[in-house]
Design brief:
It contains five helices and eleven strands; from the N terminus they run βαβββαβαβαββββαβ. By secondary structure, the protein is α/β, with parallel strands linked by helices. It has one domain (about 1-185, about 220-230): 3-Layer(aba) Sandwich (Stationary-phase Survival Protein Sure Homolog, Chain: A), CATH 3.40.1210. About 45% of the residues are buried.
Length: about 230
């Protein structure tokens, strides 16, 4: 059975990482090596020389006083060097297109890829303040992970997956399931609309209104399907 290191950037206590653990229950043996606090949007920051605290919370769960990239390093160099995969998520919010450059969720798998481990990032797009149905997220994650983990990854490649927001009338497993669409990353920027007030420059654009390339990950996910992008680092 494969050994799966689970991490994220929302912190070890976030519901998304528990949903990921549920998703992989029948896929492999999972262990958690995740930040001890919320670090969304931290990108690929790493510890620059100080000690990284390791808090063992259970036989298989470790809270790390560092970034998601630090978590991959600690896991693969110290705690679980024999791990088969690093899975990051499930992030509360999309990591699409240009988001991948600032996402800590994606940075964790990028670091794992640099360390020559297979890796997948999974994020759950959500519309405004509508709560995430984590049971649904876990079910969709199982679906996509079963397929992607059976697909060959070459050195320097990793997967970035985004699950679509639930539609207003999605109520049960019997509703139509989103399709997994293999696509490219969107090349468009995040919304750049802004206003100026006494505080300075303020972004005002809505995430869901961001420009998109037809058929790329933003378009696929916003259209209600699962986007799966293979990112090649070298």
């Amino acid at each position: 059975m494969s050994l799966l290191v689970l991490t994220n950037d929302d912190g070890i206590d976030a519901p998304g990482i528990q949903a990921l653990r549920t998703a992989v229950a029948e896929i492999g043996k999972s262990v958690v090596v995740a930040p001890d606090s919320h670090l969304s949007g931290c990108s690929h920051q790493i510890n620059r020389g100080g000690a990284i605290a390791i808090d063992q919370r259970s036989k298989t769960d470790y809270a790390i006083g560092g970034t998601p990239a630090d978590c991959s390093r600690v896991a693969l160099s110290h705690l679980y060097p024999d791990a088969d995969w690093v899975l990051s998520g499930i992030n509360a919010g999309g990591n699409l297109g240009s988001d991948t450059y600032v996402s800590g969720t994606v940075a964790a798998v990028r670091e794992a890829t640099l360390l020559r481990k297979r890796a997948i990032a999974i994020s759950q797009y959500r519309y405004r303040s509508i709560p995430v149905d984590w049971e649904r997220s876990a079910r969709l994650a199982t679906k996509v992970l079963n397929q992607l983990m059976a697909t060959e990854l070459k050195p320097g490649e990793f997967w970035n997956v985004n699950l679509p927001a639930a539609t207003a009338n999605a109520k049960s497993e019997s509703d139509e399931e989103p399709t997994i669409v293999f696509c490219e990353r969107c090349t468009q920027p995040l919304p750049t609309e802004f206003s100026i007030d006494e505080s300075g420059f303020r972004y005002t654009g809505a995430y869901e209104d961001r420009p998109r390339d037809t058929g790329a990950d933003v378009d696929v996910c916003f259209s209600g399907n699962i986007s799966a992008v293979k990112i090649q680092m070298w």
